[in-house]
Design brief:
The chain has about 160 residues and is α+β, with helices and mostly antiparallel strands. About 40% of the residues lie in helices and about 15% in strands.
């Protein structure tokens, strides 16, 4: 069995993104259209990662294509700052369709209330005990001790986002 591993990257400086936005949106739209025509369960699995996704602008077929791409073994990962950016481009219904079809959701810093509520509702919590080395000087009140305590075990809560 021959396994082909290809990593393709298309990087543009952020300062040029506004200039190239119409062309990049066209390229991404054509690429998505091409991927939706793959036969179901085609190998290899692909990851389509789109950083600064909202800056591409509205892609008319994206919300419809995203559910088709899942059945074609294409995972889509969009990176954005806020759900409000998706609402602005795709309205609330389009945002829900897009987010419901994401394989992976990573939340870095949800600052607006809508994003916080959405991810809180979507997440489940699990409390676990984690052991880690103590970096203090035996409880001397160093920075690490003040921030994290000098104990070598602590309870942490982990958010688990369930994929439907």
């Amino acid at each position: 069995m021959f396994l082909l591993k290809i990593k393709e990257w298309c990087l543009y400086p952020e300062s040029k993104l506004k200039v190239y936005q119409p062309y990049l949106a066209l390229i991404v739209a054509q690429f998505i259209r091409y991927l939706t025509q793959r036969p179901k369960k085609t190998q290899p699995n692909l990851l389509l990662a789109l950083d600064e996704f909202p800056r591409l602008g509205y892609l008319p077929a994206f919300a419809d294509a995203i559910s088709t791409l899942r059945s074609r073994n294409v995972s889509v990962m969009i990176l954005l700052q806020s759900l409000a950016q998706l609402d602005q481009l795709y309205q609330e219904t389009g945002r829900k369709i897009i987010m419901d079809n994401m394989h992976y959701v990573v939340v870095h810093n949800a600052l607006d209330h809508t994003s916080q509520q959405y991810f809180s509702d979507r997440a489940d919590t699990k409390t676990t005990v984690a052991k880690s080395p103590s970096y203090g000087t035996g409880g001397s009140g160093g920075t690490i001790d003040v921030l994290f305590g000098s104990s070598s075990t602590s309870k942490i809560s982990v958010l688990v986002l369930a994929s439907s």
